From TrEMBL:
It is found in: Endoplasmic reticulum membrane. This is Oxysterol-binding protein. Belongs to the OSBP family. It holds the Pfam family PH. Transmembrane segments: none annotated. CDD domains: PH_OPR5_ORP8. Keywords: Endoplasmic reticulum, Lipid transport, Lipid-binding, Membrane, Phosphoprotein, Transmembrane, Transmembrane helix, Transport. One of its GO terms (biological process) is lipid transport. Residues 55-172 form the PH domain. It comes from Astatotilapia calliptera (Eastern happy).
Length: 727
């Protein structure tokens, strides 16, 4: 049929025939169907990226300035194209999502400490997404936040620069990310091999230099399975040149490396435990107020029913205590509080005089007491075979202090621990027998045992004892917790001794007599200095020879905020008998203030321990990481290494499955192992793989290849920033 011609407003136009109308209708129907499928594909792709916890470029705490000019500390997780903001790292309390495709990034000057930067919309439009990653319509309640910009503050300039580089990278990724699944016929990112490969790479942790170079060769140089079109050869050649140029700027290397000789043979790197910075912790203020517990009427009944079972002088190690007095962490975790200022021991090992060393050791010893829970709380009694591990990074020396603890006996309850930093020249080993005595209106928790501090290069050992904890006011009065007793720090080799006495508050004493401490420092028989003050506040030292007085220790807000950051193992990577995972249900119930559930969960663990004891019978328990010393019978770490650090021989110290070990330079590998591995190095290697996979999918478009070259330059900038952090 021929189309008819009609006049419309004096203009002749063709009128389509019924067949043409039907064809156009069918064509429009197909277009609408493709349109809807493309919308679903894009939405599903973005939803997958938002919901997958492994697809993260960077995450950490940042302070955000609200509309009322006050700052709020929030957890920020950076993903390709979006910045997710939560109240806590658990991602249960979503605050908001920033769409980076609409944002610009700029550094912002600031008078205060830290580093500020600003994300803003250039046209003053909203930068927020309407819904959350799980479909939330309303975010968690915080102080009001601006709609068209956000101002962030990082803890240091190095952290801020790293965030700036990562955000630039995410801004660039936001346009490339849309292309990841277009090759799939079904439009599902999870169904394409390339997309699955990307997600698998993002979930990996340890990647060697050899693997990275192999992938570089296959993705960037091979491309044998790609179709050849009019511009593919040119695009691949340009991409290869861009990557080579970026590599030459970095000394011919595209991977994260330590400063090692490139002539060394490639060998498998140490598979070290991946640590992450601890997100939250409880810390009470100094003074008596934080050591007082007001017991509710409901809990008083529980205490009275418990006291009916006790007699003065009775040992409480076999008594089941109510959960409302429990601090939600294990005693093995509690013992690690002494090492947040382990850098003081690094400084002590460098002191030339014996007196200077013991004074610095005393300063470190005092630094372990100010961290305390609010109120009268007791940590969990560890289960037999329970372990705990953590570490602290030393930015000044680029080293790491590792802490390993294990419950080696249940009756009597003995906790063994080992601390080591070979590079900074010290290690600590010891075991604690926890005893509790009931005296009527009070009870005491006695830590019977010794810690042995060893300076490796000097072969000096300092034997250290612990004070006891005293709780009074159980039957009448106010329940109060204090520290008491005499302790010593003694070095037999140098004849240096520090004696301290933790004093209990006298009956008629005021607030100034709480947490008092005094003592002396001897060298031989001579008293060189006296010490007095409060163990949770200022402690002064008086030099006998010079007559001068100075502050030996003061846990001021500046000292607290500048202490070492503890690194822990993520819950899903812990063993079944590691403290946090073992007690997770009890901790969850206590945090939810559900005492009934906490008691039930605690009973399950204790009953399982009793059942294991019955099944074991007369067979002795064999600890995993510690054994009794053949001479002293003290519990010692099986993998102890007390050799002094040799820079020309030793490469790096690391931990895997509770075993602290040192990789020597003859065994090292090109990809190295730096202490930013737990966060920065892993993220950069994952990003590099991600970008290489992008290049394989986008090689048809020269524009995207140029973007990839720009991303590689951003990665190089991140690498330089991380090297500055390590220095």
């Amino acid at each position: 049929l021929q189309s008819e011609s009609r006049m419309f407003n004096g203009v002749e136009k063709d009128c389509p025939s019924p067949t043409e109308k039907l064809a156009r209708k069918e064509s429009l129907k197909v277009q609408k169907q493709n349109y809807r499928q493309e919308k679903k594909r894009a939405a599903k792709e973005l939803s997958t990226a938002l919901k997958d916890p492994s697809v993260i470029i960077m995450s950490n705490w940042l302070k955000i300035r609200g509309s009322l000019k006050s700052w709020t500390r929030l957890w920020c997780a950076l993903k390709p194209g979006v910045l997710l903001i939560y109240k806590t790292p658990k991602t249960d309390h979503w605050v908001g999502t920033i769409l980076l495709s609409a944002c610009k990034l700029i550094e912002r000057p600031s008078k205060k400490d830290g580093f500020c930067f600003k994300l803003y919309h250039p046209l003053d439009k909203s930068i927020w997404a309407v819904k959350g990653p799980k479909g939330e319509n309303v975010g968690s309640i915080t102080q009001p936040l601006p709609s068209n910009y956000l101002i962030f503050r990082a803890a240091s300039e190095s952290d801020g620069r790293c965030w700036m580089d990562a955000l630039e990278l995410a801004l660039s990724c936001s346009s490339l990310y849309k292309l990841t699944a277009k090759a799939g016929k079904e439009g599902d990112i999870s169904t394409t091999s390339e997309s699955s490969h990307i997600l698998n790479l993002l979930q990996s942790t340890a990647l060697t230099d050899t693997e990275l170079l192999q992938l570089n060769d296959t993705v960037l140089l091979g491309n044998h399975h790609m179709e050849h079109d009019g511009f593919s050869d040119k695009s691949e050649r340009e991409a290869h040149d861009d990557w080579d140029a970026a590599a030459n700027e970095n000394g011919g290397r595209l991977t994260e490396e330590s400063d090692v000789d490139q002539s060394d043979e490639l060998s498998p790197g140490p598979q070290a435990t991946a640590y992450v910075e601890q997100s939250t912790e409880e810390m009470a203020e100094a003074g008596e107020a934080s050591q007082v517990e007001t017991v509710s009427e409901e809990n008083k009944g529980l205490i009275w029913s418990l006291l009916k079972q006790l007699r003065p002088g009775m040992d409480l190690s076999k008594v089941v205590l109510p959960t409302f007095i429990l601090e939600p962490r294990s005693f093995l975790d509690k013992l690690s509080d002494y090492y947040y200022h382990a850098d003081l021991l690094s400084q002590a090992s460098l002191e030339e005089s014996a007196y200077g060393r013991i004074k610095q050791v005393l300063r470190w010893y005092l630094s372990g007491f100010y961290k305390k829970p609010k109120g009268l709380k007791k940590p969990y009694n560890p289960i037999l075979g329970e372990t705990f591990r953590c570490c602290w990074l030393h930015p000044e020396t680029n080293s790491c202090t590792f802490y390993i603890a294990e419950q080696v006996s249940h009756h009597p309850p003995i906790s063994a621990f080992y601390v080591c930093n070979r590079k900074d020249g010290f290690s600590i080993s010891g075991s604690i027998l926890a005893k509790s005595k009931f005296y009527g209106n009070s009870l005491s928790a006695i830590l019977d045992g010794k810690a042995r501090l060893l300076f490796l290069s000097r072969d000096e050992e300092y034997v250290i004892t612990m004070p006891y904890a005293h709780c009074k006011g159980i039957l009448y009065g106010t329940m109060t917790l204090e520290l008491g007793g005499k302790v010593t720090i003694e070095c037999e080799k140098t004849k240096c001794v520090a004696e301290l006495e933790f004093k209990l508050k006298p009956f008629l004493g005021g607030s100034g007599s709480v947490n008092q401490i005094n003592g002396k420092i001897f060298v031989g028989e001579e008293v060189l200095a006296t010490v007095d003050g409060h163990w949770d506040n200022e402690v002064f030292i008086h030099e006998k020879r010079s007559g001068q007085q100075e502050i030996l220790w003061n846990p001021s807000p500046e000292i607290r905020s500048g202490r070492l950051k503890r690194q822990v193992v993520q819950l899903d990577q812990q063993g079944e008998f590691e403290s946090e995972r073992l007690w997770r249900h009890v901790t969850s119930a206590i945090m939810d203030r559900d005492q009934v559930r906490a008691t039930q969960e605690k009973f399950v663990l204790e009953e399982a321990q009793r059942r294991d004891t019955r099944e074991r019978g007369d067979k002795p328990w064999l600890p995993q990481l510690f054994h009794p010393h053949s001479v002293t019978s003290e519990w010692t770490y099986k993998h102890m290494d007390t050799r002094p650090w040799e820079p020309e021989r030793c490469f790096v110290q690391f931990e895997k499955d509770g075993v602290i070990q040192t990789q020597e330079k003859s065994q090292r590998q090109h990809n190295g192992l730096s202490y930013s591995h737990s966060w920065a190095s892993q993220q950069k290697v994952k990003l590099k793989y991600l970008l290489m996979s992008y290049s394989n999918q986008c090689a048809r478009c020269s524009k995207e290849i140029k973007d990839i070259a720009m991303l590689e330059a951003s990665i190089t900038s991140i690498k330089k920033t991380q090297q500055d952090i390590q220095r």
